[in-house]
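Chapter review: from sequence to fold.
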Amino acid sequence: MTTPSDPYDEALLRFVERFAIVLNESGIPRMPARVFAFVLADDAETYTAAELAAGLRVSSAAISSAVRYLVQVGLLGRERRPGDRVDHYRVYDDDVWSAILRQREPVLRRSEEFLTEGAQMLDPQRPGGQRVRETLEFYRFMRAESARMIERWQEHRRRYRLGAEHQGHPEDNERPRPREHAERKEDSA
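The token string follows.
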């Protein structure tokens, strides 16, 4: 993490706050959303709770419940280094988005089981029975497509990473990154 007056640090924190709002709107509580956005966007591989608190400029107490939530839902992994007395947190998986989709599988399967029972119990000619059947088909579709989506994502990710070594994604070239911009300014001075 860079110093608080560093323009890149300020840009990072602005991004974290904005992305945390999006995550919060999708159901992740506010502080866990901020912590996850920070860990995702900052450069370090692992963080202690104290490092997260300093990086986000919040109290350690706020971090404690946030990392507990993120570990429970599988967005962050917790590890301890030999001889170390503090936990270190990191993005749960190198491919966090595939991991998130895989974690939804048991919920989708369980929902499908309940919906199957409901579809058998309810009259298919009535509006409620029809809605339950359509919902069951949606969950079946989601389960089938999730596996295919992970495969397609991993292929896209491989292509993108190979291309990123040389040129990056075309959309990434639209604006200079804050750190690159700051480094160019320093070099020209």
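Two observations follow directly from the output. The mean pLDDT is 84. The longest strand covers residues 76-79.
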